[in-house]
Amino acid sequence: MRYKMLASLPVYGALPVAIPDTFYSVGFPVQFFIADGTDWVGNFAPGDTNFDGVYSFRQSENILVIAGGSGYVIHPDSKTAVASCGSDIENLFVLEDGRMVLHQRMSLMVFETDGTCWKTARISWNGLKDVHVKGNVVSGLAMAYGSNYDKQWVEFRYDIDSRILTGGGYH
Q1: Residues 6+ apart with CB under 8 A from 27
Q2: How far is CA 50 from CA 12, 67, 90, 113, 157, in A?
Q3: Among candidate residues 111, 68, 28, the one with its CA nearest the CA of residue 102
Q4: What secondary structure does DSSP assign to 101-142, as a single string?
Q5: Per-residue pLDDT of the chain (171 residues; tens, 9 = 90+)
Q6: Suppose 72 and one of 12, 81, 95, 166 were both cysteines; which one would form an S-S bond, judging by CB atoms 3.0 to 4.6 Å apart?
């Protein structure tokens, strides 16, 4: 185990590392265990949702931390974010092959098992709901606007392997 989610910031020990380094409040604390046997605590700035989690990549030592919808890729030995990935992550799905699909407010982001990522084109004007995964296909409802600018929900289907979107509300 290279990490542990904490209920609160530790009272004793070294000061937590703020990620990003301009963050000066209580965020989402995660304890990381370094290969040399020491540890450190990261205090991650939250984003725009209530989604928190920590996930390991199958073929990388990097770890994905999601703090209130903000995504950070961390290498535990470096004490810094290798990359950041949005502030509006609402859910995460792990595919059978280990890839991770991040459901963001208007699009999807896919992390390969080695930690590299790519993002879909925008799927919705302002929201995705009822998002689910079956096999390697993500589907759900995307917000669209009708001819009178009335909001409506339309189906979408995104094939992760072919990277083809069918439907959606952003055209």
Answers
A1: 18, 43, 44, 45, 46, 67, 68
A2: 27, 8, 7, 25, 25
A3: 111
A4: EEEESSSEEEE-TTS-EEEPPP--SS-EEEEEEETTEEEEEE
A5: 899 999 999 999 999 999 998 888 889 999 999 989 999 999 999 999 999 999 999 999 999 999 999 999 999 998 889 999 889 999 999 999 999 999 999 999 999 999 999 999 999 999 999 999 999 999 999 999 877 788 899 999 999 999 999 999 887
A6: 81
Provide the 3-class DSSP secondary structure of residue 148: coil
| Radius of gyration of the CA atoms of the chain, in A | 18
Q: Which residue has the tokens 């339309």?
A: 154
Instruction: Please give the span between the terminal C-alpha atoms of the chain, in angstroms, as a whole number.
Output: 44
Backbone angles phi, psi at 70, to 5 degrees: -90, 130
pTM score, two decimals?
A: 0.92
Sheet holding 137-145, edge to edge: 128-134, 137-145, 151-159, 164-167
